[in-house]
Amino acid sequence: MMLTLLFISPREIGNSFFKFASLTAAILLGVALGFNFLFPSSFRDTPVPVVMLLISTVLTAIYNRVVDVNKFSAASALLIGAVGTGLISVTADSLAFRKLLAIGGWENWILVVNHLAATALLGSVMLTMVFGHWYLVIPRLSIDPLVKLTKVLMGAISIRILSMAATFIAIPFQQSYSLRTILSALMLGEGIFFWPRLIFGVILPIVLTAMIWSTVKIRHTQAATGLLYLAVVTLLFGEFFSKFLLFSLNIPL
What's the CA gap between 69 and 14, in Å, rounded? Predict the structure, then answer.
């Protein structure tokens, strides 16, 4: 969500949305840290991801208090810092993950790409959905920010699909496994996870995004917001099944 805020400005929207969005992000970051404390990962040996996530949470909370049109430079620096440390946390966590199928030695970097793409996707769809409600708060708000955020969401979905494709492209480089073997394991052995992953994480988001774009072009913000609700639910389910596949077959999808 904080990453997606970089694509819009409080100068064109006002402070209130940025305060609400950053507060929501700070709460979600706090929940993530809380879960890590209660259920520490057994597949990570370094505290770096947690430390960086904590720094990102603190910077996000400070940003929430500082963001103001008249303090644009200071708030922008805090936003960039929160985003940077958050992305470093995701990257470090992916590189430290030890339960992966060997894919030519690139498995952890492929996981980095998948996790960063998933981060951008979930954040962009959540923020765009929240922003859709802002037309109820400010009815005369320009449609341009929603158009921009919808394009960001479309780009994030495209990148997420490419990140999944990267896994299948890399598998043939590992001679111990063939692409046919992996596909058979996915479609048959783990079909209960793979097919919902494909439906909720790829097919439905593409259809919904096309519908969202159509409603945004005719300036029907309420319909767009309703469709964004559905997109949030489908993408959450898609990433949920992605994690099942990560722990059952040890491959990032």
Answer: 7
**Contact between 61 and 26 (Cβ < 8 Å):** yes
Could you tell me the residue ranges of all domains in the chain? 1-98, 102-253
pLDDT in the model for residue 140: 84
Distance CA 84, CA 125 (A): 19
Upper half-sphere CA count for residue 59 (Cβ side, 13 Å): 20
- Over residues 35-57, the pLDDT tens digits come to 999 988 888 888 999 999 999 99
Torsion sign over Cα 85, 86, 90, 91: negative
Angle formed at CA 55 by CA 51 and CA 250, multiple of 5 degrees: 45
Q: Which residue has the tokens 């992953």?
A: 197
Give me the phi and psi of 111, to 5 degrees please.
Answer: -65, -40
Which pTM value belongs to this model? Answer: 0.90
**What residues in the chain have per-residue pLDDT under 50?**
none
